[in-house]
Amino acid sequence: MSYCALSDVQELIPKFSISATSTPTSTQVESLIDKIAVEIDAVLEAQGFTVPVTSPANFVLWLKNLNALGAAARAMQGMFPSTADKDSTPVWQTFRKDYQEGLEAIRNGDIPAGLGKGADGLNAGSLYTSGAISTDEYPEPVFRISSSGKEF
């Protein structure tokens, strides 16, 4: 299941109309949307989430934007495969960077707590935030670092 639609990608690149006769075509962009959604779901699954994510609404909206960014990057890369000059950054590179940063945020756990339960029943967001689950349920750390940065 994709998190965004063709209209969401079109919203990111309003100057370039996506249609049955554009390059890439609307069918090709819809295929890119599906492929990006699969990449997103793979990263989410690796973090313990059940996919596709359907709640909470704010996270689904964030995933919608992430899906659109990834698809827009790939579509624009197809439209403009070369850079303009040494001092410019094509818009597709900016979209790709934002998309990759979003995937990295999921990998690093920089996502809000309460995003739903993973396959193991744990709330994956809570592994990175305080207050989401009881501290009694946290495993003992292998080593500790004091506030001064020294291990003890």
Structure write-up:
By secondary structure, this protein is mainly α. The chain has one domain (6-81, 89-129). It is 45% helix and 0% strand. The protein is built from 4 helices and no strands. The chain has helices at 6-12, 26-46, 57-79, 91-108. Helix 2 (26-46) packs across helix 3 and helix 3 packs antiparallel against helix 4 (91-108). The longest helix has 23 residues, at 57-79. It is globular, with a radius of gyration of 19 Å. Mean pLDDT is 80; it is low at 116-132.
Structure in a nutshell:
The protein contains 4 helices and no strands.
Which keywords apply here?
4 helices, 0% strand, 152 residues, mainly alpha, globular
Write the layout of secondary structure elements.
Blueprint: H1 6-12, H2 26-46, H3 57-79, H4 91-108
Task: Work out the count of structural domains.
Answer: 1
- Order of SSEs, N→C? HHHH
Terminal residue distance: 47 Å
**What does the main sheet amount to?**
none
Helix content: 40-55%
Estimated structural class: mainly alpha
Total helical segments: 4
Whole-number mean pLDDT:
80
Low-confidence stretches: 116-132
Strand content: under 5%
Tell me, what's the shape?
globular
DSSP summary, beta strand count: 0
